[in-house]
Amino acid sequence: MRITPFSSRPRPVLGGQRGAVAAAHPLATAAGQRLLMEGGSAVDALVAAQAALCVLAPDACGLGGDAFALVREPGGRVLAVNGAGPSARRADAMATSGGASVTVPGLVDAWIALHGRWGRRPLEAVLAPAVGLAEAGFEVSPALVAARTAQEARLLAGGAGEWALLRLGSGDRFVQPALARLLRAIGREGRAAFHEGPMAEAIARAVAEAGGRLDAEDLRAEVAQLAEPLRVEWGDIRIHVQPPASQGVLLALALHGWRRGGWDGAAPLDHLGVELTQAAFALRDDAAEGAALFDRLPDVDPERASRRGGPRAYLHTAGVACADAEGLVVSSLLSVFDDFGSGVFVPEGGFTLNNRAGGFTSGANAFAPGKRPVHTLAPALIEHPDGVAALSTPGADGQVQTLLQVILRWLVRQDDLASAVDAPRWRSEDGRLLVERGHEATADLRARGHAVEEVAPGDIRFGAVTAAGLSGATPWSLGDWRRTTWAGVA
User: Closest Cα partner for 475 from 388, 416, 406, 380?
Assistant: First the structure.
């Protein structure tokens, strides 16, 4: 019997006792559950699931990439963790691929910051499930083979000629001994195992051979930053998003626009969602201004499509959301940007490096040495009178759009969260409006002038929500039916 992860919809909301986790792969969810069962915190479960994803989804994320997280402490304080580094200090150009596209990886530094403040189990125990997966291997999926085949030329140019993945087919077992050794070293030694010494030198060497300027000194500097999130007040509900350099402010802008418009559930929710999305993305290059952009949000026509455009047609990334019975709730995303990032491979660690310098554009987001570009990773965290919800989704510029649709269905239409996640979606990209076949608003969107293109339900461009939180004191989690997203409880 062939097992398919897309056989059941909608997915239920699961209630747990010790905690709950939702992640972009069932084995990553299992890693998080294991830490919760061992007495770990929601952050222990989060790091365990993220590390597992680095093993299972090297096309979407990895140690050479970045992570962003929103953490709500039991006392109610919410903090944003930015685990994305700057361009090289000596960089003289940017690129979308190869060595010049690599910025300082921030994932490992983010793990250290998260675990140091909110972890309960030793880091070695937290990373143990990922080490086991890397050592034992896993069956390569057709999707991973397709991604590798599409990027093979870039990977070969980036030094991955001896990487076992390049010789494997669907169903073959992918064993990653170098990655297992590195994860074990990080568990024992912390950030030094990655950001200093032989591994930092190996990363710098791989970048230099691919034409980049990132060096060991760039890697030694601390990357992870803790800051206050941006917030949108929605009556007695508070919606938290990442501050700059994340483009999470664009989700806040779209929600602010809805509130400013004074619309209710009788308004054309999907049309307005598209228009607010495009209005927000018109300000993307200035995302570093944060909340100051609220006063600059363009007006939208509540009746007709502007076809303003804005969001772009790329996607990647993996999400994890966790909660525990002590009241800690976390939403996160991790990524190497494009599939396999820059294509630059570090054989000593068995991972590829990000191409986040490809996120530089123009204006305030123009390239400069030692600068962080506007970043697509944009999780959200919602405080509701009935509890807390941590939401994230992959999809690059689709992240803001998917979360906007889920939030509007939940808070405006009063759909339950599982129904809001299950519902058909749209995605604005490069002037087109992709709509999942069967969407109730398709005819209305066409009539209002949108350039609608119907797409098969479950297309990866519509994201895959990971959700977890607290209902009263009960931890819960929810997985999307799209992609291989899964949820579990302990």
Answer: 388
